[in-house]
Amino acid sequence: MKVLGEDDRRAMTYGRVSRLIEGLEESAADLAAAGELTRIKGIGPAVQGAVAELVDRGTCSLRDDLAQRAGPGVLEILRVPGLGPKRVHTVVSELGVRSVEDLQVAALDGRLAKLKGFGAKTVANVLEGIDFLNRSRGFKRLQDAYTLAKAIAARLGIETPLLAGPLRRGENVVDTFSIVAIGDAQDLPEQAEAIGATLEEDTWVVARRANPGLRVRLVSESQLARAVFEETGPPEHVAAVLARPGTDTDEEEIYTSRGLYYVPPERRHACDGTEPVPRVIETDDIRGIVHTHTTWSDGTLDIGAMAQATEERACDYLAITDHSRAAAYAGGLSIDRLREQSDAIRDLNDCGSSLRVLHGTEVDILPDGSLDYPDDVLAALDFVIASVHSSFGQDPETMTARIIAAVRNPHVNILGHVTGRLLLRRGPYAVDVDAVLQAAAETGTAVELNANPWRLDLDSQFHARAQELGVRVPICPDAHSAQGMDDVVWGVQSARHGGLRAEDVPNTQDVEGFLKAIGR
Q1: Pick the CATH number of 8-136 from 2.40.70.10, 3.10.150.10, 1.10.150.20, 2.60.40.10
Q2: How confident is the model over 81-134, as pLDDT tens digits?
Q3: How far apart are CA 491 and CA 478, in angstroms?
Q4: Four-point Cα dihedral 271, 272, 278, 282, nearest 10
Q5: Which range, of 59-73, 196-210, 298-312, averages the lowest pLDDT?
Q6: Architecture of domain 283-517
Q7: β-bridge pairing 173-174 and 288-292
Q8: How far is the C-alpha of 125 from the C-alpha of 131, rounded, in Å?
Q9: Whole-number Å distance between alpha carbons of 338 and 332
Q10: Are 254 and 248 in contact (CB under 8 A)?
Q11: In CATH, 140-238 is 3.30.460.10
């Protein structure tokens, strides 16, 4: 709607409703099928009808009409980092751009720079964004690939699929994955052809443009362990292990029968099994849900509902960290509102529940490295997360100094999403991560692994360095809903890939241990 220049308020309403539906604990599809979606405050009959149509057909007439008018090439332009819908509307309406390729030509021949609101710097950012988009083609985020693999397995009638490939190894983005199951490829249903599958011996190979490559391998029960091992990879690791004689009854035996130590799937890129592999963290080790947002800022549930969701997930404590005042776009809290929230949390803790609710904030790191709340306000909180949410284009020296200044503030306990990246959507800002980790080590500041599947930041490539320096790495879902709490699983997967142990992650401890571990 925004790209086509339609009613902006109506477009914003659809965006708001989208976030509302995303945060529902109940299934929006089930509610729509029962005609009960309108009982959710803020959802009217038009949305009820659109959702019901989406559930029934996979699309809806309103979206079809808008998409046809915009065209697929225009919608892809929206994926170029740094180009919002209004700017896309400008280039489409004034330059007749209809694809990413058209946009690149317009940027290179000078037409883009002549538009109002566009200049040399914007054009350079657009070209950089196009390059980022081209390098991201064919990849999916870990969560999306997992969902796609499950959906394909269900469509093929595979009841107990075992997921392998980079997906099982916990890589942040994947360009291929495998499904292994007991069965005969000749028995795969006709739907296989509908999703572009071709039969090669015992394997269906699926190739679909703009999606990861997929191998579906059906084997006998006696072949299952070895097939899962082979499909998990990486190929060099598999070849080195199987070069030794041994037996293949189960995956652990594949290693032990060959005189090797078992290597978890997420560590097979880094360990060869000739030495014991330290126990890496597991999801059940997490005892506290840290870094959450409520309806006080941009979350979808109030504090009480988030506390209840935490108890349902068998965790011992919840850390509320709504946005600070500079994040006006996210309903950031004024100092007075922050103090009101502190009173509300104190009242909740006084109700006798075994769950402890901690009061923190996700305070903005301002462009000059100062924080969005004064020190006396921060000192009154249980703990503080500091994050960058603005001025992403600063040069490496300025951005690094900005973040280190926040790390050195004695009231900051945790640094949030250190590089600010959004996987396959926006690259990291220019920051010297190693310098930041060194500063965190000197000050005793923890650096979060933001478990939101769009972020997974601190990246697993830096986990060994954090361990070496003694920097604690809490796994934080950055949850804006109860459903968002479950993103911890993606953070744990990334942590396992990076080799983090339970003792490296403060929120594997009880609440007092957590506060001590992130204390300054």
Answers
A1: 1.10.150.20
A2: 878 888 999 999 999 999 999 999 999 999 999 999 898 989 999 999 999 999
A3: 11
A4: 70
A5: 196-210
A6: Alpha-Beta Barrel (3.20)
A7: unpaired
A8: 10
A9: 9
A10: yes
A11: yes
